[in-house]
Amino acid sequence: MNIKIIGVGKVKEKYFKDGIAEYQKRLGRFCKFKIVEVADEPAPESLSQNEMVEVMAKEGERILSKIKDREYVFALAIKGKERSSEEFAKEINQLTTYGHSDLTFVIGGSLGLSPAVLKRANTEISFGRFTLPHKLMRLVLTEQIYRAFTIINGLPYHK
Ligand SMILES: C[S@@+](CC[C@H](N)C(=O)[O-])C[C@H]1O[C@@H](n2cnc3c(N)ncnc32)[C@H](O)[C@@H]1O
């Protein structure tokens, strides 16, 4: 199975990169995992509402250009549906059982995801009502995908 995370902007911080690389390495035994980065737009504090919409729309177009029709898309959204780790593992397992071999997770930039990306998504997933920085979100998501595979495979990681 193929799992892809699409993120906006480059992760430059070593402490995030190291954490992501660790879980990426661990995921290698379960799936083909990759992270695709699309360019972010400058988003200074001074942007008007319309300019913010424009930033999200431009980033959204870049995200959508990386998604193929066959991909099942999870949009990460604070207002999306929360799951437990066990529920998330079951969902991944069911999706693969019913023929979805390409799962894609989309994380927005500093302003969030555009309506077009949310419309393309098959489901929205929330990690709770806290707003996490998108680069930290990438690390947390990678860990939760790894956790899901350990649950699916009955391995002693999840407690
Ligand atoms: C800094 S947040 C954007 C905040 C923006 N106000 C919003 O509501 O989307 C950047 C991205 O990280 C992801 N994200 C941050 N916190 C999240 C959470 N608690 N649950 C799900 N996704 C989250 C989302 O994809 C979001 O677009």
UniProtKB/TrEMBL annotation:
One of its GO terms (cellular component) is cytoplasm. Its main location: cytoplasm. Signal peptide: none annotated. S-adenosyl-L-methionine binds at L76, G108. Transmembrane segments: none annotated. The keyword rRNA processing applies. It is found in: Cytoplasm. One of its GO terms (molecular function) is rRNA (pseudouridine-N3-)-methyltransferase activity. It holds the Pfam family SPOUT_MTase. It is an enzyme of class 2 (transferase). Homodimer. Belongs to the RNA methyltransferase RlmH family. Specifically methylates the pseudouridine at position 1915 (m3Psi1915) in 23S rRNA. This is Ribosomal RNA large subunit methyltransferase H. It comes from Limosilactobacillus coleohominis 101-4-CHN.
